[in-house]
Amino acid sequence: MSTSDRERWEARYGREGLVMGERVKPLVRELEPVLPWSGRALDIACGEGQLAVWLAQRGLDVTAVDISPSGLAKLRAQAEAAGVGVRVHGIEADLDHGLPALEPGFDLVTCIDFYSPAVMAQARHLLAPGGMLLVQVVLERTGAEARCKAQRFGADEPAAGDSPPPGDSPHRARSNEALEFAAGMRLQFWREGNIDGRALAQLLAQREPAGRLPFSA
Questions:
Q1: Domain positions in the chain
Q2: Helix (H, G, I), strand (E, B) or coil at 120
């Protein structure tokens, strides 16, 4: 990210209170039943830390990465207030330069409203066998906004959640680009289009457990 990017996020997260709302994104609540309850999680572009703290309360040990010191300060404050400070580790990093050095073996990697194919390539290699990748990216404003297509593999189509809090991302993907993040993994959920007033692509993919042959999405 450029200096102007850092300043923009600092200006946003430096405001009083949780400017992105107190609850995790609707996608997370929608897929909650299939997400892991234990192990290690990595939250990329964690912002103010709502998701990271939610995962820690769920039982995971969470590494959360963001460029904004103000956002990470709110992450720490939330974690302490929730009694999960020991489970949450915040790292300040410019994701335009990639992820910081991390020990592989994450049972869950999340990346919400941040788009970087290079970072996703790194994240995939950090997954443990059987680990899950949960992604939501903002789409370029094209015809994809006029419709919403969804598919949950092995289950019924999910209902849309409630509207997310205000805020958008300058890091946008083209239609179907996010599907590339699941290449070679088991695609558990995919949806793209106008979702609660935002042009989004959402996916949940799982690395094959150890001892199984690769699955091509």
A1: 3-155+168-206
A2: helix
Q: What is the largest CA-CA distance in the chain?
A: 50
Spatial CB neighbours of 156, under 8 Å, sequence gap ≥ 6: none
Contact assessment for residue 42 and residue 217, using Cβ atoms and an 8 Å cutoff: no
Q: How confident is the model at residue 2 (pLDDT cuts 50, 70, 90)?
A: low
pLDDT, tens digit, 9 for 90 and up, residues 152-181: 444 333 333 333 334 455 578 999 999 999
pTM of the model: 0.83
Q: Would you say 178 and 201 are in contact if contact means Cβ atoms under 8 Å apart?
A: yes
Using CA atoms, how far apart are residues 139 and 193, in angstroms rounded to an integer?
Answer: 8
Q: With b meaning 16 or more CB within 10 Å and e meaning fewer, what string describes 132-171?
A: bbbbbbbbeeeebbeeeeeebeeeeeeeebeebeeeebeb
* CATH node for 3-155+168-206: 3.40.50.150
